[in-house]
Prior knowledge:
The protein is mainly alpha-helical. About 60% of the residues lie in helices and about 10% in strands. Strand 1 (about 160-165) and strand 2 form a beta hairpin.
Amino acid sequence: MQNQFILLFLFFGLTSLFAQEKTKIVLNDTLRSETIDPLRPAKAAFYSAILPGLGQIYNKKYWKVPLVYGAIGTSTYLYIDNQKKYNIYRDEYKSRLEGNTSNSDYLAGLSESQLISAQKQFQRNRDLSALFMVGFYVLNIIDANIDAALSQFNVSERLVFKPSVINNDITLNNNFGFALNYSF
């Protein structure tokens, strides 16, 4: 009986000794609040308005800068090229109205109606190039604004939007849909 008492005493004594040596485990809080800058989209749009592509650099989307300059640069090149060709045909038409002969063999072979038609075509192409140039410039500003706004959007693992299959027990058919789950 005395041995059992000693064993019982040692058992409770050892457990109390181990209870004293617990290490505290402190978990880091997984909820962190990210500061949202409400002026970030406006800054990105302003930077892109000042210099095309600067808003994309501000958003750290460097791969979009060559696309912006390629689109605006191509439109600018086509505008200048069509303007030069329009001026060539217009000057030839004006010189014919004044009674002068053409210096170019190609232009000398064209009739006045063909010169007018060529002028209209290059003028139309020039105007379209200018429209595309302005359109790409505005698209650059809109892209920088939207990208800056979406970069602050909260995307966490706790919010899940996934497809789901629901078995209908009444009709024994499968219903397909989407499930939106938020875990706390």
